């Protein structure tokens, strides 16, 4: 089956899905994006992803390209047309197409909207979670507004490539004071030897991951102890467990941090239980938000 993408008002075959050379996203990375997980044909945490999209757009003074309800319909249509059961839907909004010049276009242009979707192999991802992954450390040399989910991802790309070349899944970025900010495309967590979950506060140093937020709901519902505070690579290496979170990874146990084995070198019990509980929570929320209606 051929893939279908949505590009500025049209559903087109993926290989013909193109944007203009003067799209400001292409020339200036002047745009934002979201990635939402599809599980069993249903979008997970959709409302939170769209809330964050609206915030990112507000921060950059880009208008919503279409009304939120219309955007929801487009996302659903792309998921349906690609027959995604398990996978992700990607959406990107840029300031639009204008003659190349740094300031915002003098005459307002319509923001550009692109939506794509792809399937992923759930079994392979669960197998990875059962084995656990390695993370390396890398310098966090990004700009100070990483709370905005912009398509300007070059430092993240370079850090991820470093991880891949080192045979790891993720790079944990470390700030000037030696504290871990987050992964190149995930949030970072540890569990101390006395059972306290720790993750960095979501101020301006990290992206406020939707999975992170939903996981905090789960943690609170189970009355588990957690702290939002920075931690170092050394503290992580000495932790009982570690894991990363994102829409695509859910809770993914980490078994090696910068070359050092964590705990028994196997996924921890708490991270494993949280992975399951998180899945149940996002499915429950999706069911509550709308009648469960697999495509
Ligand atoms: N941090 C960064 C830098 C990311 O790119 C992502 C994934 N988009 C995350 C954290 C996790 O966010 P979410 O849980 O919303 O996928």
What's the number of helices? 8
Bound molecules: 4'-deoxy-4'-aminopyridoxal-5'-phosphate
Overall pLDDT, averaged? 96
The share of residues in extended strands comes to 25-35%
- Form type: globular
**Coarse structural class:** alpha+beta
Under CATH at level 1, the class of the largest domain stands as: Alpha Beta
The major beta sheet can be summarized as:
9 strands, mixed
> What is the count of β-strands?
15
Overall number of domains: 2
C-alpha-based Rg, rounded: 19 Å
Instruction: Using the 3D structure, state the CATH architecture of the largest domain.
Output: Alpha-Beta Barrel
Distance between the termini: 15 Å
Any idea of the CATH topology of the largest domain?
A: D-amino Acid Aminotransferase, Chain A, domain 2
The SSE order reads EEHEEHHEEHEHEEEEHEHEEEH
Corresponding CATH superfamily of the largest domain: D-amino Acid Aminotransferase, subunit A, domain 2
User: What is the percent of helical residues?
Assistant: 25-40%
């Amino acid at each position: 089956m051929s893939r279908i993408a949505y590009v500025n008002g049209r559903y087109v075959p993926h290989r013909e899905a193109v944007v203009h050379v003067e799209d400001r996203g292409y020339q200036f990375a002047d745009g934002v994006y979201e990635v939402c997980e599809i599980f069993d044909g249903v979008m997970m945490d959709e409302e939170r992803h769209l809330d964050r999209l609206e915030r990112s757009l507000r921060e950059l003074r880009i208008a919503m390209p279409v009304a939120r309800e219309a955007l929801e319909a487009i996302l659903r249509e792309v998921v349906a047309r690609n027959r995604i059961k398990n996978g992700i839907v990607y959406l990107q909004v840029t300031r639009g197409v204008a003659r190349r010049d740094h300031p915002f276009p003098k005459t307002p242009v319509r923001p550009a909207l692109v939506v794509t979707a792809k399937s992923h192999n759930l079994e392979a991802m669960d197998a990875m979670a059962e084995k656990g992954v390695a993370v390396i450390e890398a310098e966090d040399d990004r700009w100070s507004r990483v709370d905005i989910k912009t398509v300007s991802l070059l430092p993240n790309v370079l850090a991820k490539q470093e991880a891949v070349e080192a045979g790891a899944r993720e790079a944990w970025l470390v700030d000037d004071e030696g504290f871990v900010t987050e992964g190149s495309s995930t949030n970072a967590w540890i569990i101390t030897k006395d059972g306290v979950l720790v993750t960095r506060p979501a101020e301006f140093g990290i992206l406020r991951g939707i999975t992170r937020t939903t996981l905090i709901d789960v943690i609170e519902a189970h009355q588990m102890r957690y702290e939002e505070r920075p931690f170092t690579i050394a503290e992580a290496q000495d932790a009982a467990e570690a894991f990363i979170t994102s829409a695509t990874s859910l809770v993914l146990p980490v078994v090696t941090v910068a070359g050092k084995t964590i705990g028994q070198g196997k996924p921890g019990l708490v991270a494993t239980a949280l992975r399951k509980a998180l899945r149940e929570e996002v499915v429950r929320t999706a069911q509550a938000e709308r009648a469960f209606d697999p495509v």
